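FIELD: query
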Amino acid sequence: MKILGINALNHDAGICLIDSDHGKILFAAHAERYSGIKNDSNLNKEMFDDMEDYITKTGRGGIDKVVYFENPYTKKLRQFMAGQYREVLSRKNMPQYHIDSVLGKGRYTIDEYVDHHLSHASSTYFTSPYTESAVVCIDAIGEFDTITIWYANGSKLEKRWSQTYPNSLGLWYSAMTQRLGLKPQEDEYILMGMAAWGKENKELQQEIRDYFFKEGNDIRFKKNLHRGCLDWDSVVMPDDDTEQWKFDIAHNVQVICEEEILKIFNKLPELVPETTNVCYSGGVALNCVANSLVVQDYPSLWILPNPGDCGSSLGCAAYVGGVHLDFMENGAFLGYNIKGKYPTKKVLDELLKGNLVGVANGRAEYGPRALGNRSLLADPRGKDIKDKMNEIKNRQKFRPFAPSVLEEHAHEIFDMPTKKSQFMQHVAPCKYPDKYPAICHIDNTSRVQTVSKEDNPGYYKLIKEFYKETGCPMVLNTSLNIKGQPIVNDEKQAKEFTKKYGVKVF
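FIELD: result
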């Protein structure tokens, strides 16, 4: 059975098509890559056209069932209770109306709705290597749930515990993102990067807890942070918005977030005693600094590389299919396909010249992180590389860049919290920060991507050849995009990137 999962109208809309009979993921994509609008919440016709074209060319037949990632009627009930009457009365935020407006009435009719957090839980569990697992989901908000813990066994998921709206760790982190002058529901990763530049301040942490958090073992807040927290002004720190003040706020917010995440995971032995396997999903699972702490206590941790709402399109389809999917067959490379042999020699030549160089080849990554097929690469040893890269990408100077390292050499260079990190889900201290300054953050950590021949043969060969020429078993890897724009998707966008920014893309 071919099952199409759809996510839209929240943020980062996407689709995923699976073959439940054979446990295969056939196609998955982000709407933003087609529209050019970062975190686009709306579907678009071109994405569906690509999916259908792919099915036709591979001879895999039509679509048998259409599934949506949340229940709009339950969501409207929550919106009504929250006083969001305009949202309740609008038909534009009804999934079927939106699909019909984009594709034309009758092209795809939703057959089934799957709850938001159940879609999250299914996305990570049914792509995991486990047939029995605890599952943790932490995000801003679903219909009502904001945190859930599940027991998964075979094709079944049982909810064991939940936290509900408006008590949301994700909403609090987004509200603090907004308080620092960043865009909520989009720039949380920037807050995470800022945190390393700040200083530990126990007094500030206590002030934050006293102002926002209620006492108790569960995460409860004194106010509804769905509306932000722009009224909060610290009495501990200076009241002027200096850069260092923002760094210090970010640092202590990140520390509190990590503590609360660990509290949630520490419920697992009591709530899910049947297994030590753990799957993790929801937008908060993109916090790779926190993930590195979690995995130390839960070494069997699995995180889908697209754990946010877009990945729920995969989850709702997998849940209805009731089948484990062979995720590692294609890894995260599930989107639009730029055909052709991986451009090893051309890219290598540019790297050896000390140039920045882009790669747009093969199927696009499913998730927010470039993993070698839609990447901007450089020599990680150059002291001026960070400045060059930030200038091209129009990014804040304090933000770090990631290394892609040959899996067999990762532990030589980094104190890895895991054996592998194929999807950049953890950070690790670099043992030689002076040798590799371009990929080290201010605290000498790196968000590491390990690369094996099995993960991505073309990318692995490139790094291997670079290692033979230089003795350096890694390259700097950042996404092929500019700040505020989606990652390059197709050939046309790749050519436009070269023309506009003067960086060769192969």
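FIELD: remark
The chain is about 35% helix and 20% strand.
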